[in-house]
Amino acid sequence: MSPRLNMIIGLVALILGAVAMSVFTVDQRQYALVFQLGEVKRVITEPGLHFKLPLVQNIRFFDNRILTLESADPERFITSEKKNVLVDSFIKWRIVDPKLYYMSVGGDEMRARTRLSQTVNAGLREEFGKRLVHDVISGERDKIMDRMREKADIDARRIGVKIVDVRLKRVELPDEVSGAVYSRMEAERKRVANELRSEGAAEAEKIRADADRQREIIVAEAYRDAQKVKGEGDAKAAALYAEAFSKSPEFYAFYRSLEAYRNSFASKNDVLVVEPNSDFFKYLKNQGK
Fold this sequence. Notes:
With 289 residues, this protein is an alpha+beta fold. The chain folds into four domains: 3-63, no CATH class; 67-173, Band 7 domain (Tetrahydropterin Synthase, Chain A, 2-Layer Sandwich); 191-247; 248-285, no CATH class. The protein contains eight helices and nine strands.
């Protein structure tokens, strides 16, 4: 191989190496800072292929996605009534100014997390110190989170970071306080339950008494109507008997005597003691007639 060919190959390799050292790719999930001799020369926020001066400039990448800062253990805060509460929270944040972020915390994510955690912790202590236990547990949780997001974002902007959200996952009383609170809640619930049972028993007695009264009224009205119908029936029967008697008194007397005989001797064990000359045997003695 001739020296000239070796020179050409070496030149091409040198050019390719220089091009490779001059080209870099920025992912859509990243920012890129171009440094020259330790000084930030450019901030690249658009993804794609970019160029730099080889050997003179170097690149450092930062995440532009929303990051989560979550407390490892619940923090203890004091309310305005001097009661302790345990608060479990998390922060959603992202880098919006990579140059300021680098200049403020040196691009160190742990330093940024520490700064944000201290800011939110101090703000929560202030907000909880203004409110009662009921307010921080349920009444004003949304209001606390909104105010903390606004206040923490103001401080975070100084290091090139934006606070997207601050959330309280859990707010509860410590174990040493929860037992007493739950006991009071249980006693209160039992008191309310007893009141409701008493009211229910009184209402039941009232309904039962009203039902008994209505039953007595219905039975009395039914008996009255029954007696009325019975009286009307007896009156009609008496009228029929009277009409039949008026048409043939002798036949009517004979028919009624037969009925009396049949009713008196319906069973073999029936015994009737009367005088032989009694009118009861009138038609038995006068068979021919």
